[in-house]
Amino acid sequence: MKRFPLFINLDKLPVLVVGGGDIAERKINLIIKANANVEVLARNFSPNVEQLISKKKIKKIKKSLDISTLGSNYSLIIAATDNKQINKKLFNFAKKNNILINVVDQPELCTCTFGSIVERGDLVIAISTGGSAPVFARNLREKFETLLPQSTKQLIDFSSSIREKVSRSFSQFNKRRIFWELFFDAFATKKNITKSNLTKLSNKLIKSLRNKNSGEVFLVGSGPGDPELLTLRALHLIQKADVCIYDNLVSKEILELVRRDAHMIYAGKLRNNHTIEQKEINKLLVNYAKKGLRVLRLKGGDPFMFGRGGEEISELMAKNIKFQVVPGITAATGVSAYAGIPLTHRDYSQSCIFITGHEKNGTLNVNWGNLTHENQTTVIYMGLNALPIITQNLIDSGMRKNMPIALVQEGTTDNQKVVVSTISRVNSKILKTDIQSPVIIIIGEVVKLRKTIKWFN
Question: Which region is the signal sequence (predicted)?
């Protein structure tokens, strides 16, 4: 982040605009909306700027710039000239006197930038690229202009009028936040908003939230790693949670989507090292929900595919805790797709089996004979450490030694690594690589298709 986004109260503060042309006019109109005391210094003024002067919205200073006569009381200076020498002098003056300065189209001479602005009354959205790509910022602004109806202003004004009422209704900050999120979710993108509808909904929500425990658990699958593979529902709930209990397989990029003030609890499970035991996780879910909080149980892949989601739901039901389940793209399907390996194919595989390679007491409880059929694919989760046991059991059960196998680490991400071999040679091959858990293992003739279907690097 090159520039920190900050909204400044310029009410009645002195602002100097140097330049009287069209560019200056656009900046002046923005600053006037903030109720600043604007002075415009230039030798010549455009007709529109003259009109603003005549309406006494701004003060006119008609003369050439003389840095030595400038006062140091300004809160902001805007240089809207095409004279680079003047702009540099203004920048040096502002820097010396600790005054914010914006030099149009010269980001290297700016201590602040305006960004592209979308305005709906008190709602202001400013988009900035730090001067690197202003056209892109304007394109984004156009999308926001389309997304936000003009009635958004009425929504914001109404919410301001009931803030005290909501505060009186709910002493707990968490309850107030839930009220506002439900309220805005109902109206944020609607075009036809009436005060009557707003009043009815606000009263209904207040009554509803007063009469029940609003705590809830969101059991959400975060997919195989790439944040763009999240479902819309998952993203919606991720950004609403008060508490986030997340696993080791959830990517850093997805965790960054969690609301910034949410309480984060790591509950990752590594081989022989469980940060929090499952019983304790269940207890945390129940206790936080009973406090009226919205608890995000964030899991890699899909919560019901080797994710122990069923155990957690059973506990929530036993304790009468409200919950939602959001499926995610399971690692087997997401990772195989990005590795260029279809799990089924008319010529190679008519069935697919998912198993866990996680050992219990040094053994794997697997019917190996069921995995040796020619025209099927086997996908193994969490199997890297048990790979020697897996391959030996498959060979002993009749699988041919040259059966293709692929190991995929950090699939769907920029760090994806794929190792392709056969079940008889893979263990010696991975010794020459730096592949590490977590890994998805794919066994079957479909692995051969990676040579032609490989698309993601």
Answer: none
Angle at the Cα of 26 (from 25 to 29), degrees rounded to 5?
85
What was the pLDDT predicted at 146?
86
According to the model, what pLDDT value does residue 361 have?
67
One of 226, 242, 247, 302 is an active-site residue; which one? Answer: 247
Q: Which of 226, 269, 299, 302 is catalytic?
A: 269
Residues of the chain scoring pLDDT < 70: 188-191, 211-214, 269-275, 360-362
pLDDT of residue 211: 66
Q: Going by CATH, does the domain composed of 117-148 fall within 3.30.160?
A: yes
Give the span between the Cα atoms of 37 and 17, in whole angstroms: 11
The CATH number of 14-114, from 2.60.120.40, 3.40.50.300, 3.30.1490.20, 3.40.50.720, is 3.40.50.720
Please write the tens of the pLDDT for every residue from 227-257.
999 999 999 999 999 999 999 999 999 999 9
What pLDDT, on a 0 to 100 scale, did the predictor assign at position 112?
92
Tell me whether the CATH fold assigned to 14-114 matches the one assigned to 117-148.
no
Going by CATH, does the domain composed of 332-453 fall within 2.120.10.30? no
Among left, alpha and beta (phi > 0; psi -120 to 50; other), residue 427 is alpha
Is 247 a residue of the active site? yes
